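We emphasize that the prediction below concerns an isolated chain of 237 residues; any contacts that depend on oligomerization or on bound cofactors are therefore not represented. The input was used exactly as deposited, without trimming of termini.
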Amino acid sequence: MKKSIFATLAFLLMLGLPVFSFADGNLSASDSGSRPADALHAGFVPQHLNFEVQHPYNLKLEERYSYDKATDTHDLWVLDTDKPHAPPPNKTEPRTEIRIIDDNYKPGSGLHMMDCDMYIVHGTFACISQVFGTGPMCIIIVDQNGTITDLRTHDVIAKNMNDKWFNWTIIHNPDATGPGAIKVYIDGKLASDKVAGRKESSFYFKVGVYSRKDSNRNEVKVRHLQYLIKPGGDDAG
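Result of the prediction step, given as a token string:
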């Protein structure tokens, strides 16, 4: 497992992509948050947090991202006039997103959870969380009014979520397909059990801002980001 993670990190560094690891520094997954024990998190094991930050390729990382160690807060922002995260021929929308790296996020590996506190800055019109396979599988967006929806089904997950901190949790069963394979929780309560998954060979989580067309300035703050796995888990309440 360590071998595959190091190989991935080496590859990303070779491409010049910023890669972060809280596994060996002063901050580790086990102390990166202050989550109380509850039924939702029961059985989940915090993982060392390895990630890259995707940001406009022509800008320095600090021009679109900052991290405050004292509060364990990531601040991610992007403008609709920014470049994609990779040079041409890439034509995707501008983004500043954290991509969590785990080579073992595959079918048969248990339930996978991304957990954090989130603050959506008013006016943001962007994708704020994704679950990827070979392509985007789950895309959750927020509009300028703070309404969070599943882009695929247009189901409303929550309303009036701008300008306040809330706990944001996504649980994915990589062995499941169809609606309910991905569940979304806000402040520990189930907000949606209709987000669909599909069969893929591997997966990863993303959180941040991926601009929607006709947006302006998009920004979210992510605090106490954690990545957890429930070995052998096959359901989430």
